[in-house]
Amino acid sequence: MSAFRRLALILALLGAPQGALLAVSPAWAQSKPAPAAAPITDAKSWHAALLRQVGANTLFPNLPQPPVKEGETPPPLPSAQVTVQFVLDRNGQVLSATVVQGSGKSEFDQAALDALKRAAPFPKPPANVSGETFPLRLPIQFRGGPQPQNPPKAKPPRPN
Protein backbone atom coordinates (compact mmCIF):
# COMPACT_ATOMS: atom_id res chain seq x y z
CA MET A 1 0.00 0.00 0.00
CA SER A 2 1.42 3.39 -0.98
CA ALA A 3 2.17 6.07 1.59
CA PHE A 4 -0.64 8.21 0.12
CA ARG A 5 -3.20 5.43 0.53
CA ARG A 6 -2.04 4.73 4.10
CA LEU A 7 -2.38 8.44 4.90
CA ALA A 8 -5.83 8.61 3.30
CA LEU A 9 -6.94 5.55 5.28
CA ILE A 10 -5.65 7.01 8.55
CA LEU A 11 -7.34 10.34 7.83
CA ALA A 12 -10.60 8.59 6.98
CA LEU A 13 -10.51 6.73 10.28
CA LEU A 14 -9.87 9.99 12.10
CA GLY A 15 -12.88 11.69 10.54
CA ALA A 16 -11.10 13.63 7.78
CA PRO A 17 -11.30 16.07 5.86
CA GLN A 18 -11.33 18.55 8.76
CA GLY A 19 -7.59 19.09 9.24
CA ALA A 20 -6.76 16.37 6.72
CA LEU A 21 -3.83 16.53 4.37
CA LEU A 22 -4.32 15.53 0.77
CA ALA A 23 -1.12 14.84 -1.14
CA VAL A 24 -0.90 15.02 -4.91
CA SER A 25 2.03 14.06 -7.11
CA PRO A 26 2.51 14.70 -10.83
CA ALA A 27 0.42 12.32 -12.96
CA TRP A 28 3.45 10.37 -14.17
CA ALA A 29 4.39 9.56 -10.53
CA GLN A 30 1.03 8.05 -9.60
CA SER A 31 0.83 4.29 -9.79
CA LYS A 32 -2.69 2.92 -9.25
CA PRO A 33 -6.25 4.25 -9.35
CA ALA A 34 -8.04 4.95 -6.06
CA PRO A 35 -9.95 2.03 -4.50
CA ALA A 36 -13.72 1.79 -4.97
CA ALA A 37 -15.80 3.92 -2.61
CA ALA A 38 -17.56 2.32 0.36
CA PRO A 39 -21.23 3.07 1.01
CA ILE A 40 -21.76 6.37 2.81
CA THR A 41 -23.57 5.64 6.07
CA ASP A 42 -21.85 7.91 8.60
CA ALA A 43 -19.79 11.10 8.89
CA LYS A 44 -16.44 9.29 8.73
CA SER A 45 -17.22 7.48 5.49
CA TRP A 46 -18.65 10.72 4.04
CA HIS A 47 -15.45 12.60 4.92
CA ALA A 48 -13.38 9.78 3.40
CA ALA A 49 -15.47 9.96 0.21
CA LEU A 50 -14.92 13.73 0.01
CA LEU A 51 -11.16 13.22 0.36
CA ARG A 52 -11.11 10.54 -2.35
CA GLN A 53 -13.15 12.69 -4.70
CA VAL A 54 -10.92 15.76 -4.28
CA GLY A 55 -7.81 13.59 -4.58
CA ALA A 56 -9.03 11.97 -7.78
CA ASN A 57 -9.67 15.40 -9.30
CA THR A 58 -6.50 17.17 -8.19
CA LEU A 59 -3.90 17.61 -10.90
CA PHE A 60 -0.31 18.76 -10.51
CA PRO A 61 -0.17 22.16 -12.24
CA ASN A 62 1.65 22.81 -15.48
CA LEU A 63 4.57 24.93 -14.37
CA PRO A 64 6.76 27.02 -16.64
CA GLN A 65 10.07 25.20 -17.11
CA PRO A 66 13.37 26.70 -18.21
CA PRO A 67 14.76 25.19 -21.41
CA VAL A 68 16.96 22.15 -20.84
CA LYS A 69 19.79 21.26 -23.18
CA GLU A 70 20.00 17.72 -24.50
CA GLY A 71 21.73 15.46 -22.00
CA GLU A 72 21.07 17.77 -19.03
CA THR A 73 18.87 16.78 -16.14
CA PRO A 74 15.74 18.95 -15.83
CA PRO A 75 15.40 20.78 -12.50
CA PRO A 76 13.16 19.08 -9.93
CA LEU A 77 9.53 20.08 -9.72
CA PRO A 78 8.73 22.20 -6.66
CA SER A 79 6.49 21.06 -3.81
CA ALA A 80 3.77 23.21 -2.30
CA GLN A 81 0.85 23.15 0.11
CA VAL A 82 -2.42 25.01 -0.37
CA THR A 83 -5.20 25.10 2.22
CA VAL A 84 -8.66 25.58 0.76
CA GLN A 85 -11.87 26.31 2.59
CA PHE A 86 -15.16 25.45 0.96
CA VAL A 87 -18.82 25.18 1.88
CA LEU A 88 -21.02 22.32 0.70
CA ASP A 89 -24.79 22.27 0.76
CA ARG A 90 -26.92 19.23 1.58
CA ASN A 91 -26.96 18.24 -2.11
CA GLY A 92 -23.16 18.14 -2.34
CA GLN A 93 -22.86 21.40 -4.31
CA VAL A 94 -19.98 23.77 -3.59
CA LEU A 95 -21.48 27.08 -2.45
CA SER A 96 -18.13 28.85 -2.05
CA ALA A 97 -14.44 28.04 -2.16
CA THR A 98 -11.37 30.08 -1.29
CA VAL A 99 -7.67 29.65 -0.66
CA VAL A 100 -7.09 30.40 3.03
CA GLN A 101 -3.36 29.66 2.98
CA GLY A 102 -1.65 29.96 -0.37
CA SER A 103 1.51 28.29 -1.55
CA GLY A 104 3.18 31.43 -2.85
CA LYS A 105 2.72 30.19 -6.43
CA SER A 106 -0.51 31.03 -8.19
CA GLU A 107 -0.35 27.83 -10.28
CA PHE A 108 -0.66 25.65 -7.17
CA ASP A 109 -3.36 27.82 -5.61
CA GLN A 110 -5.43 27.69 -8.79
CA ALA A 111 -4.88 23.92 -9.16
CA ALA A 112 -6.36 23.40 -5.68
CA LEU A 113 -9.47 25.45 -6.51
CA ASP A 114 -9.80 23.74 -9.89
CA ALA A 115 -9.79 20.36 -8.13
CA LEU A 116 -12.86 21.38 -6.13
CA LYS A 117 -14.64 22.48 -9.32
CA ARG A 118 -13.83 19.19 -11.08
CA ALA A 119 -14.83 17.13 -8.03
CA ALA A 120 -18.28 18.73 -7.68
CA PRO A 121 -20.92 17.63 -7.05
CA PHE A 122 -19.80 15.81 -3.92
CA PRO A 123 -21.62 12.91 -2.25
CA LYS A 124 -24.58 14.02 -0.19
CA PRO A 125 -24.01 13.78 3.57
CA PRO A 126 -25.70 10.88 5.34
CA ALA A 127 -28.98 11.53 7.13
CA ASN A 128 -27.33 11.35 10.57
CA VAL A 129 -25.15 14.40 9.76
CA SER A 130 -27.13 17.48 10.75
CA GLY A 131 -27.09 20.87 9.11
CA GLU A 132 -27.88 22.44 5.78
CA THR A 133 -24.37 23.69 4.94
CA PHE A 134 -20.97 22.23 5.78
CA PRO A 135 -17.85 24.42 6.01
CA LEU A 136 -14.74 22.31 5.36
CA ARG A 137 -11.03 23.09 5.32
CA LEU A 138 -8.59 20.90 3.41
CA PRO A 139 -4.80 21.23 3.07
CA ILE A 140 -3.65 19.89 -0.31
CA GLN A 141 0.02 18.93 -0.61
CA PHE A 142 1.57 18.99 -4.07
CA ARG A 143 4.68 16.79 -4.08
CA GLY A 144 7.33 17.74 -6.59
CA GLY A 145 10.61 15.96 -7.08
CA PRO A 146 12.70 14.82 -10.00
CA GLN A 147 11.19 14.98 -13.43
CA PRO A 148 11.07 11.86 -15.61
CA GLN A 149 14.12 11.36 -17.75
CA ASN A 150 13.65 11.13 -21.48
CA PRO A 151 16.24 8.74 -22.87
CA PRO A 152 18.36 10.19 -25.66
CA LYS A 153 16.84 9.57 -29.05
CA ALA A 154 18.58 6.83 -30.98
CA LYS A 155 20.26 8.05 -34.12
CA PRO A 156 19.15 6.25 -37.25
CA PRO A 157 21.83 4.07 -38.81
CA ARG A 158 23.72 5.61 -41.69
CA PRO A 159 23.07 4.16 -45.10
CA ASN A 160 26.19 2.63 -46.72
- Unreliable residue stretches: 1-14, 16-20
Radius of gyration: 19 Å
Secondary structure tally, helices = 3
Structural class: alpha+beta
End-to-end CA span: 54 Å
Number of strands: 4
Shape: elongated
Q: Strand order of the main beta sheet, please?
A: 1-4-2-3
User: What is the quaternary state of this protein?
Assistant: single chain
How would you sum up the major sheet?
A: 4 strands, mixed
Sequence of secondary-structure elements:
HEHEEHE
Percentage of β-strand residues: 15-25%
Estimate the mean pLDDT confidence. 78
Q: Helix fraction?
A: 10-25%
Give a brief rundown of this model.
A 4-stranded mixed beta sheet has the order 1-4-2-3. Helices cover 24% and strands 19% of the residues. The protein has 3 helices and 4 strands; from the N terminus they run αβαββαβ.
List the helices and strands and how they pair.
Blueprint lengths: L2 H11 L8 E3 L18 H14 L23 E10 L4 E8 L4 H14 L13 E10 L18
Parallel strand pairs: 1-4
Antiparallel strand pairs: 2-3, 2-4
Helix pairs in contact: 1-2, 2-3
